[in-house]
Amino acid sequence: MDNRMAEALKNLKANNFDAKYAENAKAASQIVLNTIPIDATVGVGDSATIRQIGILEELEERGNRILNPFTRELTTNPKMLEVRNEISRRVFTCDVFITGTNAVTTDGKLVNIDAVGNRVAAMIYGPRKVIIVVSRNKLVENVEEALYRVKNTIAPYHARTKKFPTPCAETGRCHDCSSPRRICNTTTIMEKRPWRTDLTLILVDEDLGLSWDEAWPKERINKIKANYEAVTWIFTG
Q1: How far apart, in Å, are the Cα atoms of 193 and each of 17, 122, 168?
Q2: Distance between CA atoms of 227 and 211, rounded to whole angstroms?
Q3: What is the mean pLDDT of each run of 10 residues along the chain (237 residues)?
Q4: Distance of CA 167 to the CA centre of its chain
Q5: Measured between alpha carbons, how far is residue 83 from residues 67, 74, 86, 237 in Å?
Q6: What residue segments make up the domains of the chain, in order of their start?
Q7: How far apart are CA 15 and CA 11, in angstroms?
Q8: d(CA 158, CA 33)
Q9: For the chain, what is the largest distance between any 2 Cα atoms, rounded to a whole number of angstroms?
């Protein structure tokens, strides 16, 4: 663990998050397995990181009930939109909610931007337990850097990959648009752990999900993109 990750971990704990360190995706998955009871119903917030660590398959295999409105089957069939919406609503009362976060600051804040808002809402209140998995490439210095990176790096690439007809998908930069398919609709900054939310955050010392600094080596950025594209697909509806 480098000094930056150590500082973030210390500050997350100071902000009342149950913050844990994992040296890689496999270790993160094991922490999640150890945290979730075998009889728990697990809700899922859309997250490439969660798909990459393979935890959903492991939970399902051992017998946990999974509420996941973001399966390939549900998200590629427009006729299943209402089913997806119903599952998303049921997630708010599940035993455990598992998801990722767009960014974490070195002073221990979580920054997220959502299209629908179901992911960030469940992170804040509803499920009995929340588990957030975040990787080292999502670590930023402050909220300002987090918002800039999400709007000008993550969101445009995500929109382009999903083939959403937004200006940022075309140019790679935020236009603060009013597109019907705009994905930056709800912004949350979690400065401290909410009072009534039992929240565990796992900080993983590996590149996962979708985030990078444009100053990083191209090889590292391209690997992040390729790994992200391997676990995502075009949503319809």
Answers
A1: 6, 13, 32
A2: 11
A3: 96 98 98 97 97 97 96 92 96 98 98 96 97 98 98 96 95 96 97 97 98 98 97 85
A4: 23
A5: 11, 8, 5, 11
A6: 3-144+184-190+197-209
A7: 6
A8: 28
A9: 49
Dist CA 116 CA 46 (whole Å): 11
Three-state secondary structure string covering the chain: CCHHHHHHHHHHHHCCCEEEEECCHHHHHHHHHHHCCCCCEEEECCCHHHHHHCHHHHHHHHCCEEECCCCHHHHCCHHHHHHHHHHHHHHCCCCEEEEECCEEECCCCEEEEECCCHHHHHHHCCCCEEEEEEEHHHEECCHHHHHHHHHHHHHHHHHHHHCCCCHHHHHCCCCCCCCCCCCCCEEEEECCCCCCCEEEEEEECCCCCCCCCCCCCHHHHHHHHHHHHCCCCCCCC
Radius of gyration from C-alpha coordinates of the chain? 17
Give the span between the Cα atoms of 106 and 185, in whole angstroms: 25
Give the β-pairing of 186-190 and 110-114. Answer: antiparallel
pTM above 0.90, yes or no: yes
| Residue where the block lists tokens 């200006």 | 167
Class of domain 3-144+184-190+197-209: alpha beta
Given a contact cutoff of 8 angstroms between Cβ atoms, the answer to whether 224 and 211 are in contact is: yes
